[in-house]
Structure formats: structure tokens, C-alpha cells
UniProtKB/TrEMBL annotation:
Residues 1-19 form the signal peptide. CDD domains: PBP2_phosphate_like_2 (cd13654). Involved in the system for phosphate transport across the cytoplasmic membrane. This is Phosphate-binding protein. It holds the Pfam family PBP_like_2. It comes from Sporosarcina limicola. One of its GO terms (cellular component) is plasma membrane. GO terms for biological process: phosphate ion transport.
Length: 331
């Protein structure tokens, strides 16, 4: 019996020594091939980048790009700083089309010929990236219970110098004989240019129109004035529905409310729909991997976040074309 116990003890001891030896060999192997071990652990790890990405331009596009920048820094590249500002489309192009300018310019209109010439002058290669669809939205005070539905012609007459409208009763005799307070974004913004060039057909605005740099100022002014009316992108209305109401527009087939399912280039709200963009400095994208990586991230995720910030998505075929172009820039 004692002999059996002794033999059992010797077997257990031998197994322990063998296990320890195997453990030591394993550690030695890890030390000998540390890169192989790391490689196995990081096969699915995204390349870590660092540096900055600088974006300016459209106040309309700002909420969408700011949301994407936040998501990118939190979940993609924590060592890359993405700075998003909103000087306005035109003011942004002035910062973009200079030596050592911004990496991107968000725009609520397409680049103009003179701006493209400025890019050529400085040797800046520019790529237009269509990112979403926006609906020009007219907003009024919550207490305005008479002008919640209008035709495009009636809306235009409020803002056009020779529209013959100064009071609500000039549009409809049943409406109050009170002076209308028209407002909108100033000339720095692509939304102003879209409205002036496409909606007003370059006709003069009324002399008393109150043009502002900040959309938040317009929101506050209309929310505090029963006779106020302003225009800006649908996203700003969505984010301020508690303070404002949108005007439904009758284009001839019944009143259409601006909404994600009506804003489309061939949809019910098409006459007031426009594409919005971001413009990429290709030179910088080629020189700075974080700039190209961010551009690619934006296009891969643009439709995911468009609706969240008040924009209608663009067709996937257009998204894929942009992604294919950006992939072609990679070394």
C-alpha cells in the first residue's frame, strides 16, 4: 500500500515537472517571436494614424460633418484631431483655396468658375464629393397660425424687391395687416446664393431683409417675432422644431412638407431640393494619410448619418463612385 502511494506521488511529480517545462518553452518561444504574436493579435486592427484634419465652410453642412468628425475621433482614429468650423460656403472657399489652406471645404452649392480658377492658380487639385440632399425650408413663428401653407410664388414675393408684398394681408386679405419680417443667411453662405440664384433667379431682395451670419441667430429672431419668416436648410429646422414651424409648400399638386421622404432631386419637394458637398484638397490627401482616411470614412458612412442630422441620403451608386476615386489615391 505504501509502495502504491509512493508510485502515485512520483507520477504526479513527473507530470508537474513536464508541465513547467512546457510552460517555459512556450514563454521562450514568445520571446523569440514577439512580432509573430503581435501579428496574430492585430490582424484585424485598423492602422493607427495621427495628426489633424481641418474643415471649414458651409453652416448648413456643419451638423453632418461635425457628427462624422465626432464619430471618427471616438471610434476610428483617436489620435487624429478633426476640427470642423462653419464660416459659410463662400468664406470657407477663401480659406481653402490658398497656400496651406484647409483640407476640406463644406459647401451648400457647387464651386464657382472663379473659385476653380483660384485653385488652378495655386496648383490645388480639388475633388467634389457630394454628401447629401438638403431641402430649403421656410420657417415661421410657432404662433403664426395663418401662413403655414403657401405657394412658391407667395414665398418668393415676400423676399423679392418688386414682389409687391410688405404685409401678410398683401398675400391673402384674410391674413393680418401686419408687416412681414423677412430674414435669411448672409452672402457668406451657399444657402443665400442658392436662394438668390436658383429661387429668386438673381432678382434683388427686399431692402428690409435681415441677413445674418449665424443660423442660430435666425432661429432666435423668428422664434421671438410672430411676423418673422426665414429660410435655411432642413437640418436646422429639425433641430429647432420646438421653436419654429415649417411652411408647407404647394407646388401645384397639394401641400408638401419638407421631410426626409420628400426631399429628393426627383421627388415631391424637388423644386426646393439641392445637393450639398464637401470639397477635398487632393494634394493634401496624397501627402497626409489622415486626410485621405477621413475622406474615405466620410463617404463610407455618409448615408448612415445623413438622416440623423436632417439630410436625405444620396444614391449608393454615387457613394461608391466617390469611394472608388478615393481608394485610387492610396499609395
Amino acid at each position: 500500500m505504501k509502495l502504491n502511494k509512493f508510485l502515485l506521488f512520483m507520477v504526479i511529480a513527473a507530470l508537474a515537472v513536464f508541465a513547467a517545462a512546457c510552460g517555459a518553452e512556450s514563454k521562450d518561444a514568445d520571446k523569440a517571436n514577439p512580432e509573430e504574436t503581435k501579428s496574430n493579435e492585430s490582424d484585424k486592427t485598423v492602422e493607427k494614424l495621427e495628426g489633424s484634419v481641418v474643415i471649414d465652410g458651409s453652416g448648413t453642412v456643419y451638423p453632418l460633418m461635425a457628427r462624422l468628425a465626432e464619430e471618427y475621433m471616438l471610434n476610428e482614429q483617436e489620435n487624429v484631431s478633426v476640427e470642423v468650423s462653419r464660416a459659410g460656403t463662400s468664406a470657407g472657399f477663401k480659406k481653402f483655396l490658398v497656400e496651406n489652406g484647409t483640407d476640406f471645404n463644406d459647401a451648400s452649392r457647387q464651386i464657382k468658375d472663379e473659385e476653380a480658377a483660384e485653385a488652378d492658380k495655386h496648383g490645388i487639385e480639388v475633388k467634389e464629393l457630394k454628401v447629401a440632399l438638403d431641402g430649403l425650408t421656410f420657417v415661421i413663428n410657432k404662433d403664426n397660425d395663418w401662413a403655414s401653407e403657401m405657394t412658391p410664388e407667395q414665398l418668393i414675393s415676400i423676399f423679392k424687391a418688386d414682389g409687391g408684398v410688405t404685409k401678410w394681408s398683401d398675400i391673402n386679405p384674410d391674413w393680418p395687416a401686419e408687416e412681414i419680417k423677412p430674414m435669411g443667411p448672409n452672402e457668406n453662405h451657399g444657402t443665400y446664393e442658392f436662394f438668390y440664384e436658383k429661387i429668386l433667379d438673381k432678382q434683388d431682395l427686399v431692402s428690409n431683409v435681415n441677413l445674418q451670419q449665424d443660423y442660430s441667430t435666425l432661429v432666435n429672431l423668428v422664434s421671438e417675432d410672430k411676423n418673422g419668416i426665414a429660410f435655411f436648410g432642413y437640418g436646422y429646422f429639425v433641430n429647432n422644431e420646438d421653436k419654429l414651424q415649417a411652411v408647407g409648400v404647394d407646388f401645384g399638386n397639394g401641400v408638401i412638407e419638407p421631410a426626409l421622404d420628400t426631399i429628393a432631386e426627383d421627388g415631391a419637394y424637388a423644386d426646393f431640393t439641392r445637393p450639398v458637398f464637401t470639397y477635398l484638397n487632393i494634394n493634401k490627401a496624397k501627402e497626409n494619410p489622415q486626410v485621405l482616411d477621413y475622406a474615405t470614412y466620410v463617404m463610407n458612412n455618409i448615408n448612415k448619418f445623413a438622416g440623423e442630422t436632417g439630410f436625405a441620403p444620396i444614391p449608393e451608386t454615387e457613394v461608391n463612385e466617390s469611394i472608388e476615386f478615393l481608394n485610387g489615391l492610396k499609395k
